[in-house]
Amino acid sequence: TEKLADQKRGLVNTRAVRQNIADASNALQDSLRILYAVNNAHELIRKKKYYAALKSLEDLQNEHLVPIIQNKYATQHKLADVIQKSIPQSQKSISEAVMTDLNTWLFRIRETSQFLGEVAFYHTELRRARQRERIESDSYLNRFKLNSSTELAYDESEEFDELDNEELQVDFTPLFECLHIHDALGQRDRFRAEYSATRRQQKDLLLPGTVGLTAEDENSLSSLLEGVAGFAIVEKATMRRTPNLRSIADVDELWDSMCHTAIGLTSTALDEVSNAEVLLKIKGVMALFIQTMEGWGYSVTALDAFLLTLFD
Questions:
Q1: φ and ψ at 169, to 5 degrees?
Q2: Angstrom distance (rounded) from CA 15 to CA 224
Q3: Distance between CA atoms of 52 and 213, rounded to whole angstroms?
Q4: What is the C-alpha separation between 113 and 205, in angstroms, rounded?
Q5: Domain coverage including residue 213
Q6: How far apart are CA 42 and CA 110, in angstroms?
């Protein structure tokens, strides 16, 4: 009887050991799944797949951490708690990473602004040439200005995207991704404010302190207006692609500020101009700038008024 009792105790102990081993194995598997999910999220960050990383962290919380934390019998409480507390820092890392990429993009955009303006001016000149050809064929069209609905209708077959062509490609993906991430983090308003402040700073960096209008500085005004045009085109394109990021008021405020500065710089430099040929070139560049930006939907009233003073 005593021997039988010992065997029963041994059997019970064996079962208990097996159960403990099974429990430990399950706990280990659960822990490994959690660690794998954490590692996967950080690997996605390393690969710059930021939204996927954010989604991975969310899944980690909902599928693994929260159930463990809510289960008082779970054995991975400490691990789950540590990882749960680290998630805000991981989210911050993602936010900082997309902002770093965005700042790189903004720097490149700033460097590209003048060339973008140059491409836009060239496109306007081509439209002018096509309009002249149409007028030669049909004098009735002479009553319709460039950017009029009639001219645009005639020219619609000549598709050209200033932001995506053989000479220049502006990819807005970093901006879209950054906005998407901050939306997911509930930080859209903060991102909008930071982006707006950055664009104001870039506008200030774009504008020179002086501009030369003499024959020796004949490209100075063109460079200024091309830079302003490129900057403003990016603003308008951004507003069209992401309506909730840039408000009309923000974009118009930047435009008005740049126009005011450009007019002021040009007016000051005009005192040095006495050559009629140089003055004619100034008028031509200004008119090209006006027609280009009017085509992008900007108000050119102040510029038109300034252009008229050049003919006085």
A1: -135, 120
A2: 84
A3: 53
A4: 12
A5: 96-310
A6: 31
Paired residues of 164 in beta bridges: 169
* 268, 274, 275, 277: CA torsion to nearest 10: 50
Q: Same domain for 24 and 112? A: no
Task: Show the tokens assigned to 155.
Answer: 């020219």
Residue 169 CB burial class (10 angstroms; 0-12, 13-18, ≥19): exposed
Kindly tell me if the per-residue pLDDT of 291 is higher than 70: yes
Q: Which of 60, 89, 118 is the last residue of a domain?
A: 89
Q: What angle (nearest 5°) sits at the alpha carbon of residue 37, between those of residues 33 and 43?
A: 140
The pair of three-digit structure tokens given for residue 283, joined into one six-digit string = 């008028």
Q: What is the pLDDT of residues 198-221, one digit of tens each?
A: 999 999 999 999 998 876 777 889
| Inter-axis angle of helices 220-241 and 276-295, nearest 10 | 0
Distance, in Å, from the CA atom of 247 to the CA atom of 253, rounded to the nearest integer, reads: 10
Q: Which two tokens stand for residue 297?
A: 């939907």
Query: If you average pLDDT over residues 299-306, what whole number do you get?
Result: 95
Q: Is the Cβ–Cβ distance between 158 and 130 less than 8 Å? A: yes
The residue with greater pLDDT, 36 or 282, is 282
Do 112 and 216 belong together in one domain? Answer: yes
User: What is the pTM for the complete model shown?
Assistant: 0.80
**Domain count of the chain?**
2
The pair of structure tokens assigned to 263 is 């007019």
Beta-carbon neighbour count of residue 138 at 10 Å? 9
